[in-house]
Request: fold
Amino acid sequence: MGNIIEFGKKAQDLKSIRDEAVRQRKIDALKKIFQCTRCLLRCAKCGAQLDSDLDQSSQAAAPFPFCRSCYEEHQEFKERQAGTQTHPRYYWHNEFWMRVWESWLEQQRCLDEYRQSKEFLQLLQEVEELLGNSH
Reply:
C-alpha cells in the first residue's frame, strides 16, 4: 500500500514540475516579446544602446526607437521607396540593402500582428493571472 501512495505522490510531483515548466515557458515567451523586441533603451534595428542626446522630435516621428545611424538609414529607405530620393547616399546602400530594410520592416509588422493575435492576448492574460496569484 505504501508503494501506491508513493507512486501517487511521484505522479503529482511530476505534474507539478511539468506545470511549473509550462508556467515558466509562458513567462519567458512574454519576456522575449516585450523585453527583447520592444526595448526602448536599445535601437530596434541594430540593438545598440540609444544615446540620450538624440533629437527627440525627429525620433518621435520614427516608428521605432532607432540609434542615429539606423534613423538616418530608415529616412533614406523611406525616401528612396517613395521616389523622392533616387540615388543612394552611400554606394553600399544598394538594392540588397533596400531588401534588408523591407524584410526587417515586414518582420516588425509580423511581430505586431502576433502581439495582437487572440492566442498571444490569451497568453498575456494567463501570465497576468499567474503572476497575480503568485504574490
Q: What stands out?
A: Helices lie at 2-36, 56-61, 68-82, 95-116, 118-134. The two ends are 38 Å apart (CA to CA). The CA atoms of residues 78 and 84 lie 9 Å apart.
